[in-house]
């Protein structure tokens, strides 16, 4: 039966804001991020920004509450514009499956292209497929392979979730958004804001020009150190990428266990020293006390 208004269900643009669904003309032309960062209309800041702060807080609470029970996860990034038959999409789908079989959930931006391919690979392999969507002027929507999804208004809240709940980043060919996530991850690792955090680049031919520039220009002029380049693992082998992540996690776990054992041993030693000190005090105050007693008997 045809629709009298000519609309086709599921085909119209749609935006979700929690319990609220917006379609067609009800969708605003600007995003929450854009309105937050717009420096015009400063007179509204005192009244509107206080309410925005609560909305921002609610996004963090929603993200933390929803993702707190995730198994170990890996965030996968890449272009939303890649076609399903592109080399990077085929690689992303294979990667998603391999990560799922290794026991990792796969987190993406939830969109099409490379993100959809990675979500599909994870879902078909029986793993948990997570999508963290973002409100954009050009609405993309979440792909059909996402099992657990959150829609964010604010990029910075979403980006926190990508890092907080992932053990590693895998970055496939992409555009500005992909580069943004890549360099944020590298900055967090370089500055020690996150513990050892593997960053894997896949699609070596795509990244070659960037890597040459990092080495020849950025490192060559001393803007970064040679050791900073070692933060990046470059491979076209899905198994090698997963193995790198697994080994990094195992090394970190071993280091944390060694630190824990050292702390336990130090605490035990301190407790033993305190017990010996108490015993000496109860027995006469140590060598000085015994000497005093002997001198008294001689007198």
Number of strands: 9
Structural class, please? alpha/beta
Overall pLDDT confidence: 83
Please give the largest β-sheet.
7 strands, parallel
**Strands across the major sheet, in which order?**
6-5-4-3-7-8-9
Count of DSSP-assigned helices: 10
The rounded distance between the terminal residues' Cα atoms is 120 Å
* Low-pLDDT segments: 1-10, 291-299
Order of helices and strands: EEHHEHEHEEHEHEHHEHH
Question: Given the C-alpha coordinates, what overall shape results?
Answer: globular
CA gyration radius, whole angstroms:
28 Å
Kindly estimate the percentage of residues that lie in beta strands according to DSSP.
5-15%
Residues in helix, %: 40-55%
Outline:
With 299 residues, the protein is an alpha/beta fold.
Q: What is the strand and helix layout of this fold?
A:
Layout lengths: L13 E4 L2 E4 L8 H6 L7 H23 L5 E5 L9 H15 L3 E4 L5 H11 L4 E6 L13 E5 L2 H10 L3 E4 L4 H15 L8 E4 L1 H16 L6 H4 L2 E4 L2 H45 L4 H12 L1
Parallel strand pairs: 3-4, 3-7, 4-5, 5-6, 7-8, 8-9
Antiparallel strand pairs: 1-2
Helix pairs in contact: 3-4, 3-9
């Amino acid at each position: 039966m045809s629709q009298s208004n000519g609309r086709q269900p599921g085909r119209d643009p749609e935006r979700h804001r929690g319990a609220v669904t917006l379609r067609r003309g009800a969708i605003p032309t600007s995003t929450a991020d854009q309105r937050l960062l717009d420096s015009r209309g400063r007179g509204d800041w005192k009244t509107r920004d206080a309410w925005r702060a609560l909305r921002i807080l609610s996004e963090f609470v929603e993200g933390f509450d929803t993702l707190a029970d995730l198994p170990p996860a890996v965030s996968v990034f890449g272009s939303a514009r890649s076609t399903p038959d592109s080399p990077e999409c085929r690689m992303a789908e294979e990667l998603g499956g391999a990560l799922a079989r290794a026991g990792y959930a796969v987190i993406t931006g939830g969109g099409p292209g490379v993100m959809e391919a990675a979500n599909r690979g994870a879902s078909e392999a029986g793993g948990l497929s997570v999508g963290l969507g973002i409100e954009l002027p050009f609405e993309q929507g979440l792909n059909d392979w996402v099992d657990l999804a959150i829609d964010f208004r604010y990029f910075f809240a979403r980006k926190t979730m990508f890092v907080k709940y992932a053990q590693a980043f895998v970055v496939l060919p992409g555009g500005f958004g992909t580069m943004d996530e890549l360099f944020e991850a590298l900055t967090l690792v370089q500055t020690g804001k996150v513990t050892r955090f593997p960053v894997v680049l896949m699609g070596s031919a795509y990244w070659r020009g960037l890597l040459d520039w990092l080495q020849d220009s950025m490192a060559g002029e001393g803007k970064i150190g040679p050791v900073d380049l070692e933060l990046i693992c470059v491979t076209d082998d899905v198994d090698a990428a997963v193995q790198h992540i697994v080994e990094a996690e195992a090394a970190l776990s071993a280091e944390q266990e060694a630190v824990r054992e050292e702390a336990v041993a130090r605490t035990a030693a301190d407790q033993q020293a305190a017990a010996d000190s108490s015993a000496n005090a109860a027995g006469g105050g140590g060598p000085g006390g015994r000497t005093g007693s002997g001198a008294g008997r001689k007198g």
